[in-house]
Design a protein that fits this description.
The complex is a heterodimer of chains A (274) and B (312). Chain A has helices at 27-32, 80-87, 125-134, 154-159, 180-188, 204-216; strands at residues 3-14, 19-25, 38-42, 53-56, 59-62, 68-76, 93-100, 112-118, 138-145, 163-168, 175-176, 197-201, 220-224, 240-244, 250-254, 261-263. Chain A is of the alpha/beta class and 274 residues long. Chain A folds into two domains: 3-100, Translation factors (Elongation Factor Tu (Ef-tu), domain 3), CATH 2.40.30; 112-226, Nucleotide-binding domain of ferredoxin-NADP reductase (FNR) module (Rossmann fold). Chain A is globular, with a radius of gyration of 18 Å. Chain B has helices at residues 76-90, 104-115, 137-140, 143-156, 172-181, 220-233, 247-256, 265-269, 273-288, 308-311, and strands at residues 5-7, 10-12, 16-18, 40-42, 59-62, 65-68, 95-99, 120-126, 161-164, 187-189, 193-196, 198-199, 204-205, 211-215, 238-241, 260-263. Chain B has 312 residues and is α/β, with parallel strands linked by helices. Chain B is globular and about 55 Å long. Classes of the chains: A alpha/beta (274), B alpha/beta (312). The interface between A and B is medium-sized, with 31 and 36 residues.
């Protein structure tokens, strides 16, 4: 059962002009959260903007004894709501509902995992990396952004034992170009006997390209889709994506309940607008 | 304190009903609220057959409101009866089934099918969805159409029949009157206001359907006025709705003439709103010495009073 908390803002660390990491005191949500789940956050009191916004749970905050006390959100300001959240200060409160949605399922058996992130799509992967580490899964993070300045938390992933493979569009760090290039190389050098599961979150064209690579190479691939959401609980039917059922026929399904994590083979990519 | 209200033969524990289209099939919310504590649950509009609805984007925010053009995606009445109704029954939800058709025969068929199943408390006739062209709204925008649908459904069911009226007409009260003349047990109003929003950078509509229905606090004063007008035109119970987000908003609708209300968009923002609304109503009744909430219905005082600034 999700909790709705008036969460105190512990800190709001601006990583750049566009990105911030918002730490919220939300022990009830932190205690239940699983990798890939999301929360619905109300950026302000009042009615404009009216609706909450969905955010992946970025990190789980723990006290000295290891008890969960809160969560962080990776926020990129792109609109009114995310702009307001970029501005919030410690001591303020934001309404936070969660955890919601289907989580990532860590690979079983714990063989090898490739996480593929683009931009703010990094958000679900800290908690997934922790879960994979706990299972002894060998994990690589393929992470692309426009510039070196927009690659965040690489050290944190390395501390979790994750091997980073980086790409920037301007070549300022890692491979120049899109992350799909080093990912394609990795597929080519991967022994066919090795089992590997992919986890992807980022811009739709990137997810579609990665899903194709995974399918071509016969590897499992979970994608975390970001859709406009009204409620996060299945009430409004606004966050639908066209997804195939077991018989192969495609229907609109609610990404808040059936997702946000989907097996990439279910998604009808041509229908996914962004 | 007595919070119960009556809609025809139906007795509700309180006047707060979850609005159709804003609460899934009810079962989605069983973790969040004890469904039996609600005055009712109006489930998402059902056709005979399953429907896919419109492609995204299906919603867009506007000042103090939102536009939606979901397009009545739904599982159809048969799957509803198999997959959702048993749980609603087990959870003792007072279930208002919202039905939509493209012809009068389809409404009649839906009413017949649902009347045979235990756990259906009332039929809300959707004759007001602004987002689909091929039915519903055609009846809701014509007085003879409204009369025809309501009287046809009336003949085949003993369940309370509640047409849901559109505000997208010149005079809503005349539609309430047509529904009353046709044998409706109550009317619910208002559905959303037809509206649109444009991305000026791309010059494209923000909804895939181009137009959609406006809901939320932005529409509340208009909805209150429409309930007030209907109260004066008909004796039927009115279920009022439009942007309710607090107990004070509920009271406004009751005083304007509603017997019960529906809460829709606010449930998206605040799914745990229901006990807060109940507490707020109790607090108001205590402060005003009101024993039965039904006393408030239509209690608007329009007598002229000398105001302080005139007498001083």
């Amino acid at each position: 059962m999700p909790a709705d908390i008036e969460a105190a803002v512990i800190s709001n660390t601006r990583l750049s002009e566009h990105y911030s990491v918002l730490s919220l005191a939300a022990p009830e949500i932190a205690a239940l959260a699983r990798p890939g789940q999301f929360v619905m956050v109300k950026p302000s009191r009042g009615t404009d903007p009216l609706l909450r916004r969905p955010f992946s749970i970025f990190e789980t905050l723990r006290d000295a004894s290891g008890s969960p006390i809160g969560i962080t959100l990776l926020n990129k300001r792109i609109g009114v709501g995310t702009g307001l959240l970029y501005e919030v200060e410690p001591g303020m409160h934001v309404a936070c509902l969660g955890p919601l949605g289907k989580p990532f399922e860590p690979v079983d058996p714990p063989a090898e995992a490739w996480m593929v992130a683009g931009g703010v799509g990094l958000a679900p992967f800290v908690s997934l990396a922790e879960a994979l580490k706990a299972r002894g899964t060998r994990t690589t993070l393929f992470y692309g952004a426009r510039t070196a300045q927009e690659l965040y938390y690489v050290d944190a992933f390395e501390r979790l034992g994750v091997r980073p493979v980086l790409a920037t569009e301007d070549g300022s760090r890692g491979v120049r170009g899109l992350i799909t290039a080093p990912l394609g190389d990795a597929f080519r050098s991967l022994p066919s006997a090795n089992t590997v599961q992919l986890y992807v979150c980022g811009p739709t064209p990137m997810m579609r390209a990665v899903a194709r690579l995974a399918e071509t190479n016969g590897r499992g691939c979970d994608v975390s889709l970001e859709q406009v959401m009204g409620c996060g609980l299945g009430g409004c039917y606004s966050c639908v994506v066209l997804a195939k059922d077991t018989s192969g026929s495609a229907h609109f399904v609610r990404s808040c309940l059936d997702g946000p994590v989907f097996d990439s083979r279910r998604i009808v990519w041509e229908a996914l607008a962004h | 304190m007595d919070l119960t209200v009556s809609i025809g033969s139906l007795r509700l524990p309180n006047p707060l009903i979850a609005a159709s289209g804003c609460f899934g099939y009810g079962v989605e919310y069983s973790d969040v609220v004890d469904l039996s504590t609600l005055g009712g649950v109006a489930v998402k509009g059902l056709f005979l057959a399953e429907r896919e609805g419109h492609p995204p984007p299906r919603i867009v925010e506007t000042p103090s409101g939102m536009l939606n053009a979901i397009g009545l995606q739904g599982i159809g009445v048969h799957r509803f009866i198999r997959e959702k109704l048993p749980e609603l029954r087990d959870r003792r939800a007072i279930t208002f089934v919202n039905i939509c058709g493209t012809t009068i025969d389809e409404y009649v068929e839906l009413a017949r099918i649902l009347s045979d199943h235990e756990g259906v408390a009332a039929l809300e006739l959707n004759i007001s969805c602004p987002n689909i062209k091929e039915g519903g709204i055609t009846f809701g925008c014509s007085l003879t159409g409204t009369h025809a649908v309501v009287s046809a459904v009336r003949k085949v069911t003993t369940l309370p029949v509640i047409p849901k009226l559109t505000p997208n007409v010149t005079d809503v009260a005349s539609f309430a009157k047509a529904a009353e003349n046709a044998g409706a047990d109550a009317v619910s109003l208002v559905n959303t206001f037809l509206a649109m929003a444009i991305d000026v950078e791309t010059r494209r509509p923000r909804l895939s359907n181009i137009v959609g229905g406006l809901s939320g606090p932005a529409i509340r004063p208009i909805a209150v006025r429409m309930v007030y007008e209907c109260r004066q035109a008909v004796k039927l119970p009115i279920i009022g709705m439009g942007g309710i987000a607090s107990a004070a908003d509920v009271l406004e609708f009751l005083i304007a003439g509603a017997t019960a209300v529906q809460v829709g968009t606010a449930n998206f923002v605040e799914p745990f709103i229901w006990p807060k609304l109940i507490d707020g109503l109790r607090d108001y009744m205590k402060r005003h010495g009101i024993a039965r909430i039904s006393e408030l219905t239509g209690s608007l005082d329009t007598t002229k009073k000398e105001t302080a600034w005139i007498s001083s």
